[in-house]
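Q: My collaborator sent me two sequences in one message, no labels, and asked for predicted structures for both. Can we handle them in order? The first one she listed is below.
A: Yes, handling them in the order given. First sequence, followed by its structure tokens:
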Amino acid sequence: MLRALNLLITALPFATALCAQNTPDMAGVLSRLDRLERQNEELLTEIRALRAELSSTQPSVPAQTAAVEQKLQIQENRIDEQAQSKVESSQRFPIRLTGMALFNAFADSRQSGGADYPTVASATGPGRAGATVRQSIVGLEFRGPEAIWGGRVHGSVYMDFFSGTAPLALTMRLRTGSIQIDWASRSVMAGIDKPIFNPREPSSLAQVGFSPLTGTGNLWLWMPQARVEQDFSFGRSSGVRARVGVVQTREFNAYAGSDPVAVEASRPGLEGRFEFFHKFDDERRLEIAPGFHTSTTHAGGDSIPSNLFSIDWFYNPVRRIEFSGAYFRGKNVVALGTGLIRQGFGFDDGFGEPVHSQGGWGQLTIHTLPRLDFHLFSGQHDDRNSDLLTGAIGKNLMFGGNLYFRIAPNVLLGWETSQLRTVYLGQGTRINNHYDLALAYLF
């Protein structure tokens, strides 16, 4: 035991020295452990923050499922809407139903000639008032498959009920119809439409059964035609649109004489129009287009020429103002649509002589408010007096205006007032005032 005690006393200094050497090393180890623990805590904090951020930006699986179901429901609703409005042809190509349900309440002063909307002031006839829906329009627009050489086929057919007279004796009639193939800068068309040289017309909800300002400068008669159109570009904002074609005129009521004369009912004609256009910016543009017509009337064993030069235009110097119109000058123009002015040609010593005419129309459009538009218009048809007999119409003039108020995106309320002044050679001037309240539903 004494020996063991001596060994313990001898080893004690060495143990003390060893402990003195290991104490700094242990402190370093503990310090490193503390740093690792702090780093681990910081990493855990960052991981928790990242998880929270991901959970806020990416929806959970149930949320994703709900979003997908909502999108599917929207698509199904759109498909149902399309199924309700879609009309499909037998060839399984889409057809769009379009048109206008139009109600007119009107009043005419004396010398209306018994017409709802007279085109000449008659020498007789009391005042007239009434209401009608026979100017309503029903149309079908179609688009077909790709045609030869990459062309696209489209067209339309429009009808109304203007042939009827009594409120319940309405008869549907064809207005216009076309089949057209378009390429990048060229198109061909066949159908029934306004004259090629005069595609523009004034704005009116009162006179829809035939074009506004008929008989007072607007040659509008819908006629069978086939035409070719070619576009030429002069940069990004200017160019020329050339249109040339053949038409079939309607020669009825063209004779200005009193003796009966046999007239060939229809004749071929050649027409053209060349539109020069320039776009100043997204809201302002200028269009001006000269045109022509030439054909020959066969009547009483003679051939009477029908030639005409025209020019039409559109210009909006500022966004809210537009000016449009047309002018023509020629001879024997009745077959192109002059209403009740039946003065295309006469006979002198057995030879057919054309009646020389000039005329045109102009319209100023003012877009005052997003829902309100004003249109001021005037037009005149003037035949050369020396070509006419006493009692014939020497001049027919109309001026007036209307306003459109948009009750809803597709519902228009319109008011129009106009005055028609017809000059009869040797019989003075007849005047008719027209007032019209219209309600139109566009579909």
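Q: And the one she listed second?
A: Here it is, processed independently of the first:
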Amino acid sequence: MKTISDALALRNLIFTRLERATRIEDPKQRKKLLSFVIAGAGPTGVELSGIFAEMRSNILTKDYPELSKQDLGDIYLIDGQPAVLSAMSKKTQGYTYKKLQELGIHIKLNTFVKDFDNDIVYLSDDTTIESRNLIWAAGISAKTFDGFKPEDYGRGKRLKTNAFNLVDGYKNIYAIGDACIVSGDDLFPDGHPQLAQVAIQQAHNLGKNLNKNSVQSWTPFSYNDKGSMAIIGRNKAVTDGPNQKFFIKGFIAWCVWIFVHIMSLVNFRNRMRALYDWTGYYIYKDQSFRMIIKPKEQQQK
């Protein structure tokens, strides 16, 4: 999901699957529509799987009385790494894994999605999952550009740069954020995480360097880790402090997650609207807005 339209398209697809499931009598086809496979156990995958689990428990049978509990499909979380939230601390990984299992989510680690064809998800361990819904949350590849050589790119098609974000082999081309892999940082030998904070800090550092009179006075980029967090579900979240110096879990971490995300919104009106909506969802375990709308970008495509 790169745009609001992409997010709305996914939301519409999920609602459409639910509507269709109520009109299908074949229990096997109905279960395919109501089963979800999420590739990638990072923060996005963990959050999506937790939301689907809570929908299954609190919303579906209430909003769709035509469906019984036996009709509800399974939720699978697939990842090629040996742990969920692999970029976070061991305590975070252990707590998250336990809570996801309690929500009834099937977790398959050290496993990759090989293919998706005819409502069947093929996995690297030679098993298959029957589902109409495969959601890709396993990260992205950077956009490539004409004129660069294949050796200019590293893992994830990210341009290889030095500590000043200068692309290797070039004198006047710079790359920041998800588009680059910065060398020279021993803490991140495989590149910095693809997070907004990394791109923001690289942009500030590069901007300051470009405004200096001489290259000799430039400052190499050093990532200031402000911590990581992920929400699992209602009253369940995890937070790692800067450089994983401390760990918060449960309700307190959930409150921290909400506070950070609300304060990150642009203005006071948006913050109050988000707080109002989330408070209603917390009290009633439901969301009032159920309309299926088609974004303009998707219509044009």
